[in-house]
Amino acid sequence: MNSTPTLLNRILIAILGLKMLAIGVLLVLLASVPAVASWWHSWSAGVWAGINQAFNATRFPGRPQSWLWVLVALALLVLIALMVAWVAQQGKGRANLLALEYDPGDVPGDVRIGGGVAEQALKHALANRPDLAGATVTTYNVKGSPALKVRLLPRQGVAPHLLADEVYALVAALEAVVGKRIPVLIHIGAGARTRFSRAERVR
Amino acid sequence: MTRNQEDQSPDMGRILRRETHSSRAVVATAAAVLVIVFAAYGLLEAGVHAIGQPAWLIEPQVAAERLVALPAGIPPLLLGAIGAVLAMFGLVFFLNGILPGRRARHLLAGGRNADGPAVVVDDEVVASSLARRARLAANVTPEQVMVVVSQRQVVVNVRPTSGVPVDPDAVLAAVGSELAAMALSPSPEVHVNVAQSGVIGA
After folding, report:
1. What is the pLDDT of residues A18-36, one digit of tens each?
2. Which of A48, A143, A158 minimises the CB distance to B10?
3. Cβ-based contacts of B128 with chain A (< 8 Å)
4. What ipTM does this complex have?
5. Full domain range(s) for residue A112
6. Could you point out which of A64, A107, A121, A163 has its C-alpha 20 to 30 Å from the C-alpha of B145?
């Protein structure tokens, strides 16, 4: 429901995993197979000579240091910034507005309904039910349009389809009040609070 | 949110797919932190080298020469162990990237109209609901019933009270009707196992 970049996550994780896997397998082969060791000597020596030459050719005039180090530092900085941006994308997507509509009436202006209206109303309606150990309602922004996620934690033994029907009626009432169809996802979940609480006996 | 996007509702199928599959957010964060740590160390050494100071842990020149000479200079057992650990973590990351990562959840589809709210249920909730129903049908205590719900299968294990027979067909019918009312998607198959030995004093 949130806008976590799942495809990007998978691609980047797979790339990182493949690289680590390749390096690990290379190390194991180096330690165990002599033929790989001789190949590694010839190959890596060539690469190292090339890198050495690049560093020698790029010295600051009159100083022993190469300015390639500055480039390396900058590239690593960019990499760190990209990683931080990637982490910041996880779990994003909360929204504040439930509805935004132009009001065609006599008074000029827009009508905006905050997500807090739906969240508070539904939470209050679900608060005192004996068959629920908890309920949370959140507004998300799904591809530019608002959607509600209702997360219910029923006690043990509660029939999920009956619960869903009752919450559906609440959502329909909310839609009537707001005057707009809202996409709603109901997630009936289990957690530590439901696992260790008493079972619902009477229903 | 622009006004012309207002009317089109989000793609519910996409939302449901995202809800029933793992987003890999935790593994992604771990991978990012790993890369950040290594990049920060590299940045430190590169920065120190760029201004002509002595290196913090190891001179890059020395490190590269050791890498080139690799099978020498380190016990082969240690090298192999480091490689194996690296490969294992790499495999974990890679599999996390390509496996579907289905969560233990079902969609609750039937009976409701198509444009109503979509309902996702954890398998644990389904199991506890079915266990309650099976317990009532078999007339046993909650401790004598165990239900395991997986993607395509529901296994109901009942241990009868000693001397009181349990009718597996009655349990199967009760659980089946409860499942039919739920209309899970994908819909699982029900198996009822009644244990040979009973429980005394329940």
Report:
1. 999 999 999 999 888 888 8
2. A143
3. 156-158, 190
4. 0.81
5. 97-195
6. A163
